[in-house]
Specification:
The complex is a heterodimer of chains A (561) and B (187). Chain A is mainly α and 561 residues long. In chain A, 52% of the residues lie in helices and 5% in strands. Chain A has two domains: 370 residues, no CATH class; 149 residues. Chain A has a four-stranded mixed beta sheet with strand order 7-8-10-9, covered by helices on one side. In chain A, strands 1-6 form a two-stranded antiparallel sheet. Chain A is elongated, with a radius of gyration of 26 Å. Chain B is of the alpha+beta class and 187 residues long. Chain B has two domains: 105 residues, Immunoglobulins (Immunoglobulin-like, Sandwich), CATH 2.60.40; 32 residues. In chain B, a hairpin with a 2-residue loop joins β2 and β3. The longest helix of chain B is centred in the last third of the chain and has 31 residues. Chains A and B meet through α12, α13, α17, α18 and β6 of A and α1, β6 and α2 of B.
């Protein structure tokens, strides 16, 4: 049966959509109120809502009260730009779900197109390329970690296609211009995807793109790229260091690298190691790539794709090639000679070089399947396509690694008086080591829904350095040292806060009693006590600052610095 | 000061989400303690703080707990209650407090929290560990994924080779030359 190109594309769209729903289940059952992706989802929820308050200079008043927060180095400039185009104030949880459910679908469709145009893969075998890029490998790890904005990445396969065409005999200047635009969109998606895209471009020079296309690419990418780099260097560093940075530059890089076991498949024990990047490439894909020399033309064009995919794998191992994350033994690897503290602070996740591997190996797998389908009964290849779909769910472990987490803001926030909010909780030591970051990200996510300024420097990955942590430390010091409670109230009102949201259950019992007594003496009885949303919260109102009081930033200097 | 931002478009999805959500059931916490091999039987208990009160949950390895495999060295106990994102949790073994922390319990599903005990010169100590399934002794070896993953990969490769051999046989039978079209136009 001959299907029209539109019918084929529609069938692919349906298949990817179903796969996306299964891949991220149970998200599709409650996309407006639940997140299933990991830790970074909370910070992303804040970033989604902060997008509409970002100025042209990249600053937002939504975080870091009483100061402003610089978002010049935020995770995804592209996500913020796309959200600015949406009318009204969309539900941040729904937007996050949209990225998870639709991002891989669009990435897969673009890779399928790339496989068809570059290595003449035929439908339905080109679907293998889509699954490899959209659902396997680093896409799976990205979903589990919660950096969902990177899942919407059709730009990288489209860049590969445009740059590939630029080196073909019929390559035109506009192929180069398109490549420049797609490279820039990769850079705007995340800096890591931008670096992966740069690898595609550099390797593409080995195919000698036409001079007119190269000029077109340069004319587009250079000004855009330089403007981005200038803005990036002006922005505040989002994370000076990871919570593990004291373990040294090499350790920081190794935590963000892959190992032979994390590329093979997910088992629960792998995640006992902090920050293990589990990114299975898919064994069906690897098997098809392995037989490519026997099926496709010897020394054919596919070898460029193989080189690209392999380079991504080799670079993803970071400074040491190891069997698994818990194994201290390993072979010194490619990143070892170039490790420095500066590099480790800026580039901590060599695993993200796998962004080039998924599309590259997928394109080869699609070409191999196409060639085999011309020589044997195509039904013999159906088990491979089925296996590939199952791998996307089972081998990646997504079916077990994603779990429903309610993401509807506790009602206590709605009972706080209008104005900046201080989320008060203690410093929490002990495992899990990143609990501080979790509390910050969670309260930032709620800030995205209540819309009031908060003192957290949301998206920060170094704990205890933002205004909230400093203020919380000062406030607890005052309370636990028995200083007069009215002093605490005066400090909060001069700093411009309208409410304190207190989390009593985060304290040990004796301190809980002391803090509550002090808050009630200084701020009065709680305005509201809530138990919903999985949190026990008390809301205290802060009296307005008296006329002639210092501006909040000046009060900060007086009280805190 | 900025007023709270609530958009009307939030109302319907939030209502639908609240009604049709996987997060509407009670939260279940499964606690498990793995004893070192050859360890004598222990008396283990987990205490969970709920509404300011400590709820005691005895752990057992005699099959009396749901999903427990008797005598496998994994002591288990269950807690069921309203959904909470954090729980203050203590672990006591032989009346000695070995662990106290605020645990993140944000998943609205059955959640496993596990410890492994070790005997040292200063007595027993407990370390948080990846939770295990009943009867799944410390196969806590990440190399399992190497064996399982690459073993599956070898099967895939065998199948693909089988198809390839069949293709070559078919080519010969049909007297075709092994025309390799894929990728050629791109080269």
């Amino acid at each position: 049966m001959k299907l029209s190109p539109w019918t084929r594309r529609a069938l692919s769209l349906c298949l990817y959509t179903l796969l996306s729903m299964a891949w991220s289940w149970p998200l599709a059952s409650a996309p407006f109120s639940t997140v299933v992706s990991g830790f970074d989802s909370w910070g992303t929820l804040w970033l989604i809502s902060a997008s509409d308050s970002v100025t042209l200079t990249g600053q937002s008043t939504a975080g870091s009260w009483p100061f402003v927060q610089d978002l010049g180095r935020s995770d995804s400039v592209l996500m913020m730009m796309l959200l600015r185009l949406l009318p009204g104030q969309p539900n941040p949880v729904a937007v996050l779900s949209g990225f998870v459910l639709l991002g891989p679908v669009l990435s897969a469709l673009a890779t399928e197109f790339c496989a068809e145009r570059c290595l003449n893969a035929k439908w339905p075998w080109s679907i293998a390329a889509g699954i490899s890029a959209g659902f396997l490998g680093i896409a799976s790890a990205t979903f589990v970690d919660g950096q969902v904005y990177a899942l919407l990445n059709p730009w990288l396969p489209l860049l590969a296609w445009a740059w590939w065409q630029a080196a073909e005999p019929e390559g035109k200047a506009w192929h180069g211009v398109l490549a420049g635009v797609f490279w820039f969109l990769c850079l705007l998606t995340t800096a890591y995807v931008g670096i992966a895209a740069t690898v595609v471009v550099l390797l593409g020079f080995l195919r000698f793109p036409k001079a007119r296309a190269t000029l077109g690419a340069a004319a587009t990418a250079l000004p855009l790229g330089l403007a981005f780099v200038w803005r990036f260097t002006q922005g505040e560093l989002r994370s000076q260091a990871s919570p593990f940075a004291d373990q040294g530059a090499r350790m920081a890089l190794e935590l963000g690298s892959t190992q032979l076991s994390t590329l093979a498949g997910w088992v629960p024990q792998l995640e006992a190691e902090p920050n293990a990047v589990v990114a299975p490439l898919g064994m069906v894909i690897l098997a098809l790539v392995a037989v490519a020399p026997l099926v496709l033309t010897r020394r054919g064009a596919w070898m460029w794709w193989a080189g690209l995919g392999l380079l991504g794998v080799l670079l993803s191992f970071g400074p040491t090639l190891r069997l698994d994350p818990s194994n201290p033994m390993g072979i010194p690897w490619l990143w070892r000679p170039i490790i420095s503290d500066e590099l480790a602070a800026l580039y901590r996740f060599p695993a993200r070089m796998l962004w080039v591997t998924g599309p590259a190996f997928g394109v080869i797998a699609a070409a191999v399947l196409t060639r085999l389908s011309e020589r044997v009964n195509p039904w013999l290849l159906a088990p491979l396509m089925l296996g590939l779909s199952i791998e996307a769910i089972l081998l990646t472990g997504n079916a077990w690694r994603s779990a429903p987490v309610p993401a509807v803001m506790p009602t206590a926030y709605a009972h706080a008086p209008p104005g900046p909010v201080l989320d008060l909780y203690p410093q929490i030591a002990g495992p899990p080591v990143d609990y501080e970051l979790y509390m910050m990200d969670l309260t930032c996510a709620w800030a995205g829904q209540h819309g009031r300024p908060v003192a957290q420097r949301c998206l920060e990955t170094t704990p205890n350095v933002d205004p909230r942590a400093k203020l919380s430390a000062e406030l607890h010091h005052q309370v636990l040292s028995g200083l007069p409670p009215d002093r605490t109230a005066q400090m909060l009102s001069e700093l411009g806060f309208a409410a304190v949201i207190w989390r009593p259950d985060a304290y040990v019992i004796n301190e809980r009693v002391a803090v509550r007594e002090s808050l009630e003496q200084g701020l009065g009885a709680p305005l509201y006590e809530g138990w919903d949303g999985g949190e026990h919260l008390l809301v205290y109102g802060v009296p307005a600052a008296p006329p002639g009081a210092l501006a909040p930033t000046q009060a900060w200097t007086q009280w805190i610095d | 000061m900025a007023a709270p931002r609530y958009h009307w478009s939030l109302a319907i999805p939030l209502l639908v989400g609240a009604l049709w959500s996987p997060c509407a059931q009670a939260q279940r916490l499964l606690f498990q303690v793995l004893t070192p091999s050859g360890q004598r039987a222990v008396q283990a208990e987990v205490q969970v703080e709920v509404d300011g009160n400590w709820e005691r949950i005895p752990l057992a390895d005699d099959g009396s707990q749901k999903e427990d495999v008797p005598g496998d060295g994994i002591y288990m106990g269950w807690h069921e209650g309203p959904y909470l994102r954090h729980h203050a949790i203590r672990l006591l073994v032989d009346d000695q407090e070995l662990y106290y922390n605020l645990e993140k319990t944000e998943i609205d599903d059955t959640l496993r929290i596990g410890w492994s005990l070790s005997e040292g010169p200063e007595g027993l100590s407990a370390q948080r560990s990846a939770a295990l399934r009943p009867g799944e002794m410390p196969s806590a070896n990440p190399a399992m994924s190497l064996i399982a993953g690459y073993g599956w990969g070898a099967l895939c490769l065998l199948y693909v080779f089988g198809v390839l051999i069949l293709a070559k046989t078919t080519d010969k039978t049909a007297g075709k030359t092994a025309g390799k079209t894929t990728g050629e136009s791109a080269e």
